[in-house]
Amino acid sequence: MIENLVIVESPAKAKTIEKFLGKDFRVVSSFGHIRDLAKKNLGIDIKNNFEPDYEIPKEKAKVVSELRKAAAESKNIWIASDEDREGEAIAWHLASVLKLDLLTTKRIVFHEITREAISDAIENPRRVDMNLVNSQQARRILDRLVGFEISPVLWKKVQPSLSAGRVQSVAVRLIVEREREIISFETESQFRVTAIFTIDSENGEKATLRAEASKRFADEKEALKFLELCNSSKYTIGNISIKPGTRSPSPPFTTSTLQQEAYRKLGFSVAQTMAVAQKLYEAGKITYMRTDSTNLSNLALAKSRDMIISEFGEKYSKTRQFKTKSKGAQEAHEAIRPAYLDNPTTSGSQNEKKLYELIWKRTLASQMSDAIIEKTSITIDMSDSPVLFQANGEVIKFDGFLRVYTESTDQETTDDDRYVIPPVTKGMSLSYESITATQKYTLPPSRYTEASLVKKLEELGIGRPSTYAPTISTIQNRGYVSREDRPGEKRPVKIITLLDGKFANSVKTEVTGKEKSKLFPQDIGMIVNDFLMENFSEIVDYHFTAEVEEQFDEIALGNLKWTGMIEKFYSPFHKTVTNTLEKKERKTGVRLLGNHPETGEPVTVRMGRFGPVAQIGDSGNGEKPRYASLSKNQLLETITLEEALNLFRLPRTVGEYDGGEMVVGIGKFGPYIRYKSKFFSLKKGVDDPYSITSERAVEIILEKNESDKKKILKDFGDMMLLNGRYGPYLVKDKLNYRLPKGADAEKLSREDCVKIIETSDKTKKSS
DNA sequence: CAGTGAGCGAGCTTCCGCTTGACTT
Q: In A214-284, which ranges are E strands?
């Protein structure tokens, strides 16, 4: 018999806690939720007051049977799931599955994993809070109702296998609306004038001062007019303002801010950040990585203080506790911090090291002094124009937390940052060294990255730390959005330079619209979003979650019955569902682009069975319409008639070579030439499928054949030894096999290869 | 790996939040 059994959610947590509790306690873990609504059907008996049908999922059967066994062997059972809505529900499900009496079962919570907090928890047990449990049931059931009633509507009215939900549909909406802002954005340009001035100081040294004109100029003519005034002007220093300021460190990491910073500083995807953090957590190197709290334990605060004082001195230490700002935060855990603050670095993979160091620096910096800065702002008067030049500078007087860590931003940094202004006095005269007017274009809003989308969702109070990464995967898996790079386009930038009284015009080029790892909506995402906006605007409203959260809070306080709340939501909602099913047309995103210039047939685009498709003619007059798939990066919403007609020019035959036809087309993997039933890719940025010549096509074919020849080490007829990126390998029936270590490909015989395939086959599944 | 867009119907898809493996590359 075991004296005490403590059940927590996470096995890593169980391990840590067991160390603190001693012999009389055994600590086991539930691995999160152990029961959920039935997987099949709705899992809710609507007619019977929304009675939930809970079941233990197959993959949880083992955990549950082990928990049952442990419970049977124990005298006292303590349920120590997290102190939030979900944790309370886990406690309740545990109690009912393990057949524990709710009146006597001890419910305890740890606010942090320290010896003190744990013994404190043990001394203050309470009972399972049914109000909190009911607020979770309301949350769970609302999400199931929304997801499982709207998704089937999409299958009927848009496309099979689609999905909608309280969280994912808003995430898609954000991305779709941002794209539309970008589509409708009209770029304008202005001229910005910057100058480099020379100050002749008393000791004969020359100092330079960078400044910008306080006015921008609409066009080249205006800019030139101003430069002419600049040329004839005399310059004197006008106002000098020196303002002290401070900069404070950011709070320690939550899941959301960790994902943002790991993306900005390390280039990690959201999923990657979580995977690496999980490893660090399991190794006991950091605290729990799914948290919305910026709280640090007293122990961590004290430890940071010691570290900072011994490392940098008393001046650098400032103990702070940050208030959690995010909406709906449940604060069941600490902030993400190193488990042992004395370790600035750690062992493990490169990524683990990098992420750990980021967490360490952020945590330490959060307990350090403000940086003290001095902002200097100087105006320079012109004799011939009322326009001023302005120079802004910043000097760090005391680095404080900046010594360890600076938070990155999503915006690009300006060149004003950390510019040190030379000493000047009012009335000093200056002369210009050069003055430049540069064309500046306005920029459209920027597309979301995975991390900036997480930030936005958190601001809206939508989603939880444990779901940010999965949500972002879901909307990509459904094909609603896709993470992509774009090369951008070149555009001219006009520049007028004034140097030694002479004006010179030049044109530079800049790249605009270059994107890296940004979220782009896909046609199906836009169609589904529009469908939801038209029919279920309440669900995709940005405030929907916040509003239902308020009601969940009321349920948790015992002021509202969960069944009543759900009923109030469900009856109008369900009416909308049936109404939409009955009365609304299928949505295909169809758009009439115009008529074919020769035949006059209508040209349309829409979402077809295999994706977005363009169509010439309709089936009305007996003629068969012609179809062509849209190419990647084209949207139903923005494609023009001309672009659509272009799609029908492919595939086309460009010529013949050695008795075979060469056909050019655009496939899944870009433009290609098909020749003797083999495929040859066109060179990106070099060849254009619409204009490529027969000569060039032959060249590509010969080039590819030549390089393929080099790839083949040995050809046994039914299998081949090839030279790949990672060295030689074996191919048979389109499956690749790795050679055993130390094997010399040159010397392998046919029999050797057969053996390799046989031995490696066991681990391979045919796909 | 590389273009498919007739129409019907059976059987499937789907949510959000808690937690980790067990898989393959």
A: 235-247
Report chain A's terminal Cα–Cα distance, integer Å.
50
Q: What integer pLDDT is reported at residue A33 of this predicted model?
A: 98
pTM of the predicted protein model: 0.90
Task: Domain A2-128: give its CATH code.
Answer: 3.40.50.140
Q: Is the CB of A631 under 7 A from strand B?
A: no
Task: Classify domain A139-185+538-582 by CATH number.
Answer: 1.10.460.10
Phi, psi of A407 (to 5 degrees): -75, 140
In single-letter form, the type of residue at position A676 comes to K
* A37 CB-to-strand B distance under 7 Å: yes
**How wide is the angle at C-alpha A510 spanned by C-alphas A507 and A515, nearest 5°?**
170
Computed on alpha carbons and rounded to an integer, the radius of gyration of chain A in Å comes to 33
Measured to protein CB atoms, the chain B nucleotides within 7 Å are: 1-6, 11-21, 24-25
pLDDT of residue A384: 95
Ranges of chain A whose pLDDT falls below 50? 416-417, 761-767
Quick one: A249 exposed, middle or buried, by C-beta within 10 A (0-12, 13-18, 19+)? Answer: buried
What are the CA-CA distances from residue A78 to residues A111, A128, A451 (Å)? 15, 11, 38
Q: Is A563 exposed, middle or buried (0-12, 13-18, 19+ CB in 10 A)?
A: middle
- For residue range A40-61, what is the model confidence (pLDDT) as tens digits? 899 999 999 999 999 999 999 9
Q: Which two tokens stand for residue A289?
A: 């990585």
Beta strands in A357-410 (DSSP E): 371-382, 389-398
pLDDT of A205 reads: 75
Taking a C-beta distance cutoff of 8 angstroms, is the pair A449, A516 a contact? no
Residues 463-522/A with CB < 7 A to strand B: 463-467, 470-471, 474, 478
Count other Cβ atoms within 10 Å, centred on residue A650: 17
Q: Is residue A737 flagged as an active site residue?
A: no
Give the nucleotide at minimum CA-to-C1' distance from A651. Answer: B3
Residue A231 near residue A502 (C-beta atoms within 8 A) = no
Q: Measuring CA to CA, which residue among A418, A415, A434, A431 is closest to residue A376?
A: A418
A672 touches strand B (CB under 7 A): yes
3-class state of residue A532 by DSSP: helix
CA dihedral (A538, A539, A542, A545) positive or negative: positive
Q: Which residues of A78-108 are buried (b: 16+ CB within 10 A; e: fewer)?
A: bbbbbbbbbbbbbbbbbbebbebeeeebbbb
CB A493 within 8 A of CB A221: no
Closest nucleotide to A606 by C1' from CA:
B5
Of residues A550, A548, A444, the one with CA closest to residue A182:
A444
pLDDT, tens digit (0-9, with 9 covering 90-100), for A393-405: 999 999 999 999 9
**Domain coordinates of chain A in residue numbers?**
2-128, 139-185+538-582, 255-369, 591-647, 652-712, 716-766
Residue A570 beta carbon within 7 A of nucleic strand B: no
Spatial distance between the Cα atoms of A483 and A319, rounded to a whole number of angstroms: 40
CA–CA gap between residue A43 and residue A143 (Å, rounded): 12
Q: How far is the C-alpha of A187 from the C-alpha of A511, rounded, in Å?
A: 14
Evaluate whether A303 touches A362 at the Cβ level (below 8 Å).
no
pLDDT at A413: 53
Which residues lie closer than 8 Å to A538 by C-beta, 6 or more apart?
A: A544, A573
A296 to each of A13, A220, A589, A732, how far by Cα in Å?
Answer: 17, 56, 50, 57
CA of A60 to C1' of B22 (A): 14
Q: Are A605 and A614 in contact (CB under 8 A)?
A: yes
Q: Which amino acid is at A677?
A: S
- CATH for the stretch A255-369: 1.10.290.10
What per-residue confidence (pLDDT) applies to A767? 33
| Residue that has been written with the tokens 């898996």 in this structure | A477
Report the pLDDT value the prediction gives residue A631, as an integer from 0 to 100: 87
